[in-house]
Amino acid sequence: MRVIGMLPPKRPVRKQVKPLLASSTSWVRAPASGIFNTDVQLGSSVSKGQHLAAISDPLGDSSEVMLAPFDGIVIGRNNLPLAHEGDALFNIAEFKSVSMAETLVEEFTAIYDH
User: Fold this and answer.
1) What is the pTM of this model?
2) N or C terminus: fewer CB in 10 A for the chain?
């Protein structure tokens, strides 16, 4: 049936992805309430002290900066534009080797992101 076009062509066999376990994860919470402006995307590698986002008041008079507490990969992120003090905004996974984890995330994305 594939030969006469009744079925789609076979999909290539996908490379199996070896799972990588994080040693721990942690949520970074909003230090204040306000408008949430993020600088990092989901799946991004971050370094300790890297600027993650800013939370500013509605008039833009003051701003609170959010920094990464450790090296890791962003595995969860709040997409809402408003944040309240204490809201969980970023979930960061910590790995023994962040560079190896980053490589595996890139490979996974290349395979499964269409």
Assistant:
1) 0.70
2) C
The continuous run of DSSP H or E covering 35 comes out as strand 34-38
Report phi then psi at 62, rounded to 5.
-135, 155
Q: Which residues contact 24 (CB under 8 A, 6 or more apart)?
A: 93, 94
Amino acid identity of 52? L
Q: How far apart are CA 105 and CA 45, in angstroms?
A: 10
Query: At which residue do the structure tokens 């309430």 appear?
Result: 33
Query: 56 and 76 in contact (C-beta within 8 Å)?
Result: no
Task: Indicate whether 9 belongs to any domain.
Answer: no
**CATH at residue 68:** 2.40.50.100
Give the separation between CA 53 and CA 67, rounded to whole angstroms. Answer: 7
